[in-house]
Amino acid sequence: MDIRTDESLQYDFSTVKAATNDFSDENKLGRGGFGTVYMGTLGEGNQIAVKRLAWDSGQGDVEFKNEVLLVAKLQHRNLVRLLGFSIEGSERLLIYEFMPNASLDQFIFDPTKRTILDWEKRYNIIKGIAKGLLYLHEDSRLRIIHRDMKASNVLLDAQMTPKIADFGMARLFKTEETQGDTSRIVGTYGYMAPEYAMHGQYSVKSDVFSYGVLVLEIVTGQKNQCFQNGESVEDLLSFAWKSWRNGTASDIIDPTLKVGSSSLRDIIRSIHIGLLCVQENVIDRPTMASVVLMLNSFSITLPAPSQPAFFVRSNIDPEMPLLHEYSSSTWSNGFEKPKISKSKSRSSQYSLNEVSMSDFVPR
Q: Residue 206 belongs to a domain with what CATH number?
């Protein structure tokens, strides 16, 4: 399909250029892996957000077309609304509704701004994201896997309603399809499900894993790969699992939250749901339909979560280079997936004389 044929979505480049004051620094809202986002005001006074793709970004014409055709067909209060696009020479612009409160990561990871998000607001954000993902997976006319769910891809409107954004990496499934695989791994490593990061296999459960990481980040106010525990730095999934198992889950709650007895019950339950979503076995993770039900009905008894994927059994040395690479590397440019032998198990291997041997598998 040629997206130019859909004139109802196409904006004149000069109009968008004027609306953003020639893409001035004063109008810049932020910069991501694929380009820069600007605030703009159209002639009639309507505010817009314009994503100007960088010419050397990993998001090429295929991803650009993917986002336009996909998002234009989606309508849900928890999905950001795409207003249109513009093409001029090498320029590629995506025009969205303007979100005055920017993205979720700018609140929950900021020591000052996170105080604005009390538990009621955070819980509504957790539930809103779940509803948006449920719509993508089951309730829209299409079955869509986002593949890059993270805090920076959740935008907040004036009422702090969450809206899932950035569908450049999304994949469309036929109704009868349940999973796919690829040799081009895209997304953000800290949020990736293990089966996707290591083998390129993705399904709706890949989004469920990313959602679980996001829930734990919202509850703790800390990033998934550098959870500050006193003087040490730990993997968030590991620490959340150990705390829940030891009955000390309240230790990971963001201290800026003023927690009453009823709120504490909701927070502990949210941690429990988050841990169910990040289980290593794909089959063990709930669907988003189950997650929405668990979030809205306290009469449902939750199963005990199993050990999360990428579980780290000891403290991570904060000076360790691998931690920095692991937490910040975004495979947006499409690294080839690691070639891991399927003939060997990750469990202990034994030689003929029964001497134990270690089988190292790179992440």
A: 1.10.510.10
Query: Do 193 and 143 contact (CB within 8 A), yes or no?
Result: no
pLDDT of residue 315: 43
The conformation of residue 135, written as its DSSP 8-state character, comes to I
Q: Are residues 172 and 314 in the same domain?
A: yes
Quickly tell me which residue has 């904060």 as its tokens.
318
Structure tokens, 153: 């891809």
Task: Say what the pLDDT of residue 237 is.
Answer: 92
Distance CA 312, CA 240 (A): 11
- β strands within the chain, DSSP E: 28-31, 35-41, 47-53, 82-88, 91-97, 143-145, 154-156, 162-164, 171-173, 179-181, 184-185, 201-203, 227-229, 232-234, 335-336, 349-350, 356-357
Three-class SS state of 329: coil
DSSP for 259-277 reads: --HHHHHHHHHHHHHHHHH
Whether 249 has a pLDDT exceeding 90, the answer reads: yes
Counting Cα atoms < 13 Å in the Cβ hemisphere of 348 gives: 6
Taking the chain, what is the end-to-end CA distance rounded to the nearest angstrom? 37
How many Cβ atoms are within 10 Å of 234's Cβ, its own excluded?
22
Percent over 90 (pLDDT), the chain: 52
For residue 193, give the 3-state DSSP assignment: coil
Mean per-residue pLDDT for 256-274?
90
Same domain, 115 and 251: yes
Catalytic positions: 148
Among 67-76, 142-151, 207-216, 252-261, name the one with the lowest average pLDDT: 67-76
3-state SS assignment for residue 52: strand
Average pLDDT over residues 149-159: 95
- Coil/strand/helix, residue 164: strand
Q: Tens of pLDDT along 342-351?
A: 333 333 344 4
Count of beta carbons in the 10 Å neighbourhood of residue 122:
25
Q: Are 208 and 285 in contact, with CB atoms under 8 Å apart?
A: yes
Instruction: Please tell me the predicted confidence (pLDDT) of residue 325.
Output: 31
How many domains, in total, are found in the chain?
2
113 and 132: one domain? yes
3 in a domain, yes or no? no
Which is it for the CA torsion 180, 185, 186, 187, positive or negative? positive
What mean pLDDT value characterizes the chain?
A: 81
